[in-house]
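FAQ: What does a multi-protein file look like?

Like this. Sequence, then tokens, then the next protein.
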Amino acid sequence: MSEPENRLLRFGWEEWVSLPDLGLPALKAKVDTGARTSALHAYDIETFGPAARPKVRFTLHPIPGRDDLVIPCSAPIIDRREVTSSNGESEHRYVIETPIAVNGDSWPIEITLTNRATMNNRMLLGRQALLDHITIVATERFLQPQLSFEVYHSARMRQEAPNRSLRVAVLSRENNYSTRRLVEEGEKRGHTVEVIDTTRCYMAINALAPEVHYDGKRLPRYDAVIPRIGASITPYGTAVVRQFETIGTFCVNSSAGITASRDKLYAHQLMARARIGMPNTAFAASPKDTGNLIGLVGTAPLIVKLLESTQGKGVVLAETKKAAESVIDAFRGLKANFLVQDFVKEAAGEDIRCLVIGGKVVASMKRTGAEGDFRSNLHRGGAAKSVRISKEERETAIRAARTFGLNLSGVDLLRSESGPKVLEVNSSPGFEGIETSTGKNVVARLYDEIEHNVRPTPVRRRKATTRGA
């Protein structure tokens, strides 16, 4: 940051300026030496963060008359002051400090936040922001190089937007490794991360102002939500995610993607439609001919799996046809829904977990079942180590995640003689096993994806309208 100490700057009563740290590359500012402090147009003003280091989030329309362009901003609060406007009205305003840039020079200024929607200029430059060697020519305007609002239409808008402080909600009922890492990594990046118990959320469903409430209060506006929905509360948990989607909050995984991944039957149908390799699978609600159901899959040994199974529970290996018939009859007697799958012998009790974030495999590990157990789940005593995957395995994992529309997923693969077979796509994968075994900070990659998605997007130009004669 450099102050223009060696050259005189001449300002007219209106000038183009930039506030780069707020993601505002072009603003028209009114220069007013009668005002002490500068002011910036802001609405939806909301404080967040710890009491010792509070921050403020706000949004603004940088182009007058273009309410379709909304820029979200955040900054540390340095003060709160009572400011009296030119019409004599007093208002308590939050004060932030940020660099202003003019013609290649920049210097820090204090700015108060207030709603200037009715003003022609989105910013007012007070005398405190004007350096000693800035001369004001009150009869002229735009004495410094002119900028253009066209910058808000460019692809550079997203690429060059600053990584502002975000307010992130983690929907989780557990204080486990994954939840703690999400909080730790987010706070390390300057974000505020709040853990919300999904089952304590309730919703106000209406067309004009949908809301999510929690413990008697309306939840604040979040920049992003990270769903960690347990299998036992999938229907209600996805309803809460759907409500955040209705509000317009960026959700790492969509409610539709979570729902599809949890329904094992539907998940297999989706993967079959996308031609993703998986073990031969059969399903029936109440087959009269157990032998025919087994025949649809192949010969024993077979896997019989409850549709609601998680972490390896409700998954049985039937080593003979007779054993398979007995297990199927038992599940049917319990009126449980189940799948029958071919057992991939060559996998030898091992599978590969690929963690896919933003359409890329960011880490992969090989999981081996405990002695005598065909299931490789770490929750059941399995072991894990980092593994290099083939191009085909990588592409299969990415296609599987894309099929469910998930930004974050754990794709479980088996290595078979005919290529990789997808066992499952997990929409709430744990981080402990894969971070420990690979040494990679996968949570940081997740926040990279979140920060990329919540940056402002270039606004489309309005189409010219023609009126009939």
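And here is the next protein:
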Amino acid sequence: MLSWLFDSKKEKEADLSQLGIDIHSHIIPGIDDGVETIEEAVAMVQKMQALGYQRIVTTPHVMWDCYKNTPEIILSGLQDVREAALAAGLTIQIDAAAEYFIDEHFMELLNTQQQFLTLPGNRLLVELPYSTPLMNTSETLFSIIAQGYQPVLAHPERYTYFHADPSVYKKLADQGCELQVNILSLTTHYGENVHKMAEWLLKNELISYIGTDAHKIQHLELIHRSIRNKYFSRYPFQNFNLIHA
């Protein structure tokens, strides 16, 4: 399944220009578990430009137990990264949204109609717990839609509690939730089970977007080495539709 994804005989470097935009990364230093310094951030931006991206919408975590990021914190950090990238001679467009962990704080923000940082097209990138499923996932996604946002579920292939009944992914998509797979899930970087689920989701055409979810330069270097160019012309990812949105 998807045997054309990798070339075991000849290593090919990735060209992600067909995607145009990356909608999931962690390149604002010091505010989550992504890069720690501005130098690391610039190296990440440089590598993403070399991979062919024309635009980055980076997405720091908003997870109230760990990362109490606000729009002000994120946009201030974004400006620092923009200025450093420009000083380094980089031309790629850099914007910011956020990756919102669905917790009590998120629901409070949603219910009180607070400001969210969104992906193009008023899309709200959200993530679920890794170990225990939410009891009301469908209701929460409906609430997001009711507030006028388009929910995008980050890396659904990594929620292993869904693997026993993958039909849940189709239910989420049918309810109006777009799904975003991580590029490195197409390798065994997160483990074989995650890799198999990513392939299943692609085979069943349930994925709308693909993102790097890069937290450090090593993630981008692994993508550069291990992903075949041919792959990105064979699946109808919708990334490029967002590049000018």
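Q: Is there any per-entry metadata?
A: Some entries carry free-text notes. For the entry above: The longest strand covers residues 123-127.
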